[in-house]
Design goal:
The protein is built from 14 helices and 11 strands. It is an alpha/beta fold.
Length: 367
């Protein structure tokens, strides 16, 4: 790892990243109660806390959190401490909420976690667990793009400048020998930064020729006639790469380890239930999406999207380090120092107690 972090360029890029203006507290909208989160009689508060504030995205790649909310896993482990939920649409907004104390723990993609950690000189967050791998695809208009080489000269959407999929696409473009300016998105391929919510409409309108996006957006495009040209999993060893991690405010981790452990236990239990009951889990995640957004996914979108995601407790730390290298290669980061970004102590404690294999931090853990 480099001896010292140089963050000036990182900060400039981060300042340029568009933050979505969200409802309610200014960071996200409060999740509606699914009706399944019941507090057991005689339950006690954990660490004396009235509540633990949990954030996540309305993406299927955050299925652990969606199922954990919908099936009451978090509330069960937190006892009489209320599990409070806030859905987000953008990583930078969730990081801002974490920094402000509006949430304590969050499910988030690797690039926002890297950016948040680097921007604060390693002082605001820790990655404390994994959640999901995969679920990202390059989908295209088959009338305009029939092979990978046809992507050159076309307009391809990513969710946000500097987000996880944007970095991955820029890295793939570079591997083809093509040139694109990372900030403007202009070059041999036009990278069009478009909110996932409007990407399907942009595709239908013909303003983009395809998109490198997470699920369920990829399957929404396929339902509109697009074709999957590339599954990002095919580019990674063992076809695994981190798409969703669990992060926590460092101060909250220090002051309330029992509460953090309870949330991690709930996450492990949720993943175990998901993998043992895939059809029920898919339905629960979709039900929570419907509760949060008012619109559940249709089977034609839900089924292929869910199938492409692997739910795992392993944060796949080595792949996060590789994703950081991709951001450096793209010109979005300058040699980030990631030592200490992980603290997997409590997760491994939970895994041992559950008889599960422990996980590794790839040398990037707290010393």
């Amino acid at each position: 790892m480099p001896a010292k972090t140089s963050v000036r360029r990182t900060l400039a890029v981060l300042a340029a990243l568009p933050l979505l203006t969200l409802a309610a507290c200014g960071y996200g909208s409060e999740a509606k109660d699914s009706g399944t989160a019941k507090v057991a009689a005689g339950a006690k508060k954990i660490d004396g806390l009235d509540s633990v504030k949990i954030g996540y995205f309305g993406n299927l790649t955050h299925g652990t959190a969606l199922v954990g909310v919908n099936k009451g896993f978090f509330q069960k482990e937190l006892g009489a401490t209320k599990a409070s939920y806030t859905p987000f649409n953008a990583g930078p907004s969730e990081i801002e909420a974490l920094n402000a104390g509006s949430i304590d723990i969050g499910w988030i993609g690797p690039s926002p976690a890297i950016n948040g950690y680097t921007k604060s000189d390693g002082k605001n967050l820790r990655i404390i667990g994994g959640s999901a791998s995969g679920g990202v695809k390059l989908v295209v208009n088959p009338a305009k793009i029939k092979s990978l080489k046809d992507v050159k000269g076309k307009k391809i959407a990513t969710p946000q400048a500097g987000n996880t999929q944007d970095v991955a696409f820029l890295n793939w473009i570079a591997d083809q020998g093509w040139k694109v300016d990372a900030k403007s998105g202009k070059g041999d391929v036009s990278v069009v930064r478009t909110d996932n919510k409007v990407t399907p409409d942009a595709y239908k309108a013909g303003s983009i020729d395809g998109a490198w996006v997470p699920e369920p957006t990829a399957s929404k495009l396929v339902a509109e006639g697009a074709k999957v040209l590339l599954d990002e999993a095919s580019l990674w060893p063992d076809k695994q790469f981190v798409i969703t991690n669990i992060i926590v405010r460092q101060g909250f981790l220090k002051d309330h380890p029992k509460a953090v452990e309870a949330v991690l236990k709930a996450s492990v239990e949720a993943n175990k239930w998901i993998n043992a009951n895939p059809d029920q889990a898919k339905a629960a995640a979709n039900a929570q999406l419907g509760i949060d957004s008012g619109k559940a996914l249709k089977p034609a979108v839900l089924d292929p999207a869910w199938k492409s995601i692997q739910f795992t407790n392993d944060p796949l730390a080595a792949t996060l380090n590789t994703e950081a290298e991709h951001a450096v290669k793209a010109g979005l980061l300058e040699n980030p120092k990631l030592d200490g970004i992980y603290d997997l102590t409590l997760l491994n404690k939970v895994l041992k107690a559950e008889g599960e294999s422990t996980v590794d931090d790839a040398g990037l853990g707290v010393k």
